[in-house]
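Quiz preparation item.
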């Protein structure tokens, strides 16, 4: 199993970023996928998840209305569109497959002016 996150960077408050996570080594379309984040000195927290076929999504209250999770099962990729970014969104973002205790390297998102 491999999960490779990308798309992070430095963005000003109010800006947008789109994260991608390319998966390999398993049947991607058979699993719920999630995005988590971990800010310095804080526990890792669930940001959003999406069902195997994309019909069901869930979001943390802190990102509802600003973030959108989606997936392309043909490309084995899950996305996180992040709009109206705030400094408190600064963290390392990770994708994760359900029923598997494996974490990729993550991608750093920094929101700062």
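Solution:
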């Amino acid at each position: 199993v491999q999960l490779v996150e990308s798309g992070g960077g430095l963005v000003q408050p109010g800006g947008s970023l789109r994260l991608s996570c390319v998966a390999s080594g398993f049947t991607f379309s058979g699993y719920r996928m999630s995005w988590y984040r971990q800010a310095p000195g804080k526990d890792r927290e669930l940001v959003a998840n999406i069902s195997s076929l994309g019909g069901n999504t869930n979001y943390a209250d802190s990102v509802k209305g600003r973030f959108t999770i989606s997936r392309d099962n043909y490309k084995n990729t899950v996305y996180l569109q992040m709009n109206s970014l705030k400094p408190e969104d600064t963290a390392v973002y990770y994708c994760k497959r359900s029923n598997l205790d494996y974490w990729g390297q993550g991608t750093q998102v920094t929101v700062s002016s």
